[in-house]
Design a protein that fits this description.
By secondary structure, the protein is of the alpha/beta class. The protein has 28 helices and 19 strands. The strands form five sheets. Strands 15-16-17-12-18-19 form a six-stranded mixed β-sheet, with helices on both faces. Strands 6-7-5-8 form a four-stranded antiparallel β-sheet, with helices on both faces. The protein has a four-stranded antiparallel β-sheet with strand order 11-10-13-14. Strand 6 and strand 7 form a beta hairpin. Helix 9 crosses helix 20. The radius of gyration is 35 Å and the shape is elongated.
């Protein structure tokens, strides 16, 4: 990976004009296509396979009048007046006839009509005109809402005497999140942090510009995707929020590494390539974890959540791609202007007396002075912060979450005041009445029995459809749609299904927007455990790959869970319990949006692993070089803390900026992410992590040998590239094999071979020999690039191993003489195909005279060979004059 990124960074620097032009064209194409072709967002939440969704889909076929969204007109007269007088009834009847003619109106319910009950408030001051539409919310035309508003105004004037008609309902809701000026404040804070860190306007503006470009492209593609699939309005806003945060952070990591290298005197193009390879590897790892976690949202099996996860993953993927292509090109454009200025002599002398990272050093020393105490205080403190999460309730937003003063919110409040909170979230019970000879009577019997159930405020409507095969009963709960009491009522109604079947011979189902919301919340709640297992298991595997340790992944995952718990607790404290709700402009408390927990867990996982990799990789690097765990903690923390602090502050600012004026959907998500990032970066990664590593000491580092060999290596900090660059000129151009201190251990840690040194010129035959298990075959397969877990320096055919093992395998050919009848013919064919090195394993088993003669002729060719055998004396007649013997110690023997 790091070698590929090194070449990519060099290419981006060399072709910087083309790279910038391509990205600008991509932005123009994505944005233009979205403007021309997008179909708009769709906030219809569905959950295939659930009772409520199946019933709603059935109603769409047999009773379309009640399957779409709906509007409400609420007539309210002043105190002392009644809506039931004759003139008001006449005015309402006239308005109902006009509403019936409005486009997209399926039907209209006259509150004073026959068979309608509960549409007039108990105090007699309000009448509710229900207007079901034949389309979903996303398809409601503005002209439809304008016509309904105009009729409402005319009705108010007709009734007179201070009457007012409120127009609202789901059709008038505005669930589409919008950007507000406060999001610009987040970008402003990010700019200030970048300026303080880099002391360069060019370096500070670059991450902001590239993050905005990435967000523009991803949002354009998301809106373009509405042509083929419905996408909720939350998806592009979530993509904006995540794209800005990670886009700035990923660019920050590359720029920080690049400027550090420039300060050390590195050439601009070389520094660009190395920064792309090293910091770029960490960026790809971090981005990959975020993308995998977001795509993991598919485990919930809910389409709108899947599209939301995919949309956010697209934004993160573009942030990563821009970081490793456009950022290198821009760094090359900036050239030496990004090189930090050398301090003046007076300031330099002062810097010698006052170490620059004194705050970071003091912080880490305090955290690790009594590390066990730090661990206990941190864990207990975060556990206490998570306590409010036990009250967390999940629900989909309704009009009670709309902005105060909006038509939908005002109508919602009026309905709650005059009719009760349940009228804003009615349930629909469907009944299969096709077998009945008295469909109206059967529906009325069902309605009468439902009216007596606890938690039912009213049953205002009970009617069969025009074909008489399906009946609907509208049930108004006594409580709000997101309350636990309404959820209990849904369970009770569903619990009566067998009773209704036995008594009336009809199957029933509970549906409606409220029931769908309850089912969505339940399904998401059930998905949290498998999703959590997926995320936790993924983090353990990925971190074990990066750090080659058991304790580091366990510690990182435990810290992540603490961060998630604290974020849930803070979210419940504000949005569930209502503390600070007024300060943060929270319009509705009592529940949080259903998909917040799973999104928080997925996104925070990736961000937490980002900080973990950047901080702990520096600590591990120092430990590998010096072997002192305490020194490694302090040194690694000091070197990485500045960038981690800047990245965390930027991400916190971006998320927090979406809270004050964010929509009801985005606000709790942004708040929980802001709290989660702050806690994870400053409390977990920068306080708990050093303390835990100090407690563990040397035990923190290392994997069991068997697991070490089983796990692939993910070089998140580009160590393999640094190794490759160090060996770039080693071995010269004449050596086919160069090895230094080459060592391979078995599963128990015992050496198979150790401290091997080889320098084999081209055209030479190397013989590896010895009796028993001396490692000759293991060494042969190592030289062929088939064994990759060795230690030390190794270069074969000019390729550094194990980094380029796969590429080397095309240029080497192994012949197992115990399995091949004619090894000489196979070797000749390999040489004819252009293979640069042929390896014979157990060549001394070739006993037939003709086979030995043919093999002798092949080995005499001007080519490079490695052969293994037990006794070199038994193959002396086969060997040419240019031969190295590697003996049984194992050790380097003589050259013939």
């Amino acid at each position: 990976m790091s070698s590929f990124l090194y070449r990519l960074g060099r290419s981006a620097a060399r072709l910087r004009v083309l790279v910038v032009a391509i990205w600008v064209l991509v932005l123009a194409a994505a944005g233009g296509s979205a403007v021309v072709f997008n179909h708009g967002t769709d906030d219809t939440f569905s959950i295939p396979g659930s009772e409520s969704q199946d019933a709603l889909d059935h109603l769409g076929r047999v009773f379309p009048e009640v399957s779409g969204t709906s509007a409400q007109l609420v007539l309210v007269v002043p105190d002392g007046q009644q809506v039931g007088k004759a003139s008001t009834r006449t005015a309402v009847a006239s308005a109902v006839k006009r509403i019936e003619k409005v486009d997209q109106v399926a039907t209209v319910v006259d509150p004073f009509g026959s068979g309608v009950s509960g549409a007039v408030s108990c105090d007699g001051r309000a009448a509710l005109i229900a207007v079901p539409l034949d389309v979903d919310l996303a398809q409601v035309e503005p002209s439809t809402k304008d016509d309904l508003t105009g009729i409402a105004n005319d009705l108010a004037r007709t009734v007179g005497n201070g009457a007012h008609v409120y127009t609202g309902g789901d059709a008038f809701s505005n669930k589409v999140p919008k950007l507000s000026p406060t999001e610009g404040i987040g970008l402003g804070i990010a700019l200030i942090v970048l300026l303080l860190m880099f002391r360069s306007m060019i370096a500070a503006v670059m991450p902001l510009a590239t993050a905005v470009l990435g967000v523009g492209i991803s949002v354009g593609l998301i809106f373009l995707a509405t042509v083929v699939t419905p996408i909720s309005s939350t998806a592009p806003m979530l993509a904006v929020m995540l794209g800005l945060a990670v886009g700035i952070d990923y660019a920050l990591f590359l720029l920080s590494r690049h400027r550090d290298q420039l300060a050390e005197g590195l050439d601009v193009d070389e520094s660009v390539a190395r920064a792309t390879a090293t910091a770029g590897s960490a960026v790809i790892f971090a981005g990959l974890t975020v993308v995998i976690a977001l795509l993991g949202l598919t485990v919930a099996g809910i389409p709108f959540l899947t599209t939301m996860g995919v949309a956010a993953a697209i934004a993160v993927a573009f942030a990563v791609t821009i970081a490793v292509t456009l950022i290198p090109a821009l760094m090359a454009f900036a050239g030496d202007r990004l090189r930090p200025r050398a301090p003046k002599a007076k300031k330099a002398r002062k810097a010698l007396r006052l170490p620059k990272p004194q705050i970071a050093r003091a912080w880490v020393r305090t955290a690790t002075k009594v590390p066990l105490l730090t661990v206990v205080i941190t864990v207990v403190g975060l556990a206490v912060c998570a306590i409010p999460a036990t009250d967390l309730r999940l629900a989909l937003p309704d009009n009670g979450s709309e902005e105060e003063g909006s038509a939908a919110r005002v109508t919602y409040d009026v309905v709650s005041e005059h009719f009760g909170p349940g009228y804003n979230g009615p349930l629909i019970v469907t009944a299969d009445i096709i077998q009945s000879t008295d469909p109206v009577g059967l529906v009325n019997k069902l309605a009468a029995e439902i009216r007596t159930m606890p938690g039912v405020a009213a049953v205002p409507l009970a009617t069969p459809n025009p074909k008489g095969d399906t009946g609907i009963i509208q049930v108004v709960p006594t409580t709000t749609a997101d309350s636990p009491q309404t959820e209990d009522l849904v369970k009770r109604l569903r619990g009566q299904e067998q009773h209704f079947l036995d008594t009336y011979g009809t199957r029933t189902a509970v549906t409606g927007i409220t029931a769908v919301g309850i089912d969505v919340s339940a399904k998401l709640g059930q998905a949290l455990v498998p999703f959590g297992i997926l995320v936790v298991g993924l983090s353990l595997i990925l971190l074990a790959m990066v750090f080659r340790s058991i304790w580091v992944p366990l510690k990182a995952t435990f810290g992540y869970l603490l961060s998630v718990g604290a974020a849930f607790g803070a979210t419940s404290f504000v949005f569930q319990q209502g503390h600070l709700a007024e300060t943060l402009h929270v319009a509705h408390t009592g529940s949080v949006i259903s998909f917040l927990p799973i999104i928080l867990m997925g996104v925070l996982f990736g961000l937490a692993m980002d900080y973990e990799v950047f901080l702990v990789s520096r600590i591990r690097e120092d430990y590998v070089h010096h072997g002192d765990p305490q020194h490694a903690i302090e040194s690694g923390f000091v070197s990485a803390s500045r960038v981690v602090v800047a990245a965390a502050l930027i991400m916190f600012a971006v998320f927090a900026a979406f809270v004050p004026e964010g929509s009801a959907t985005i606000k709790p998500i942004a708040f929980s992410l802001a709290i989660g990032v702050f806690v994870d970066a400053f409390v977990v990664r920068m306080t708990l992590v050093p303390a835990v590593l100090a407690v563990l000491g040397k035990r923190a580092w290392g994997l069991p040998p068997k697991l070490d060999r089983a796990l692939p290596v993910f070089d998140a900090e580009g160590d393999s590239l640094m190794h490759e660059l160090r060996l770039a000129d080693w071995g010269g151009v004449d050596e086919v094999i160069s090895a230094w201190e080459l060592t391979l251990d078995d599963d128990r840690g015992h050496p198979i071979y150790h401290d091997v040194e080889l320098h084999v010129p081209r055209g030479t035959t190397l013989v590896l020999h010895g009796y028993g298990s001396v490692g000759k075959s293991a060494l042969l397969f190592t030289l062929a690039g088939r064994v990759t877990k060795h230690k030390g320096d190794l270069k074969v055919l000019g390729r550094v191993l194990p980094q380029h093992s796969h590429a080397l395998r095309r240029d080497v050919h192994i012949i197992r003489c115990r399995e091949v009848a004619d090894p000489a013919a196979e070797a000749a064919a390999a040489l004819a195909d252009g293979v640069g090195l042929v390896l014979f394993d157990d060549v001394d088993v070739v006993l037939r005279t003709d086979a030995r003669d043919a093999l002798r002729d092949v080995l005499a060719r001007d080519a490079s060979y490695v052969v293994s055998c037990q006794d070199p004396e038994r193959i002396r007649d086969l060997l040419p004059t240019t031969t190295q013997l590697f003996g049984p110690a194992p050790q380097l023997a003589e050259v013939h």
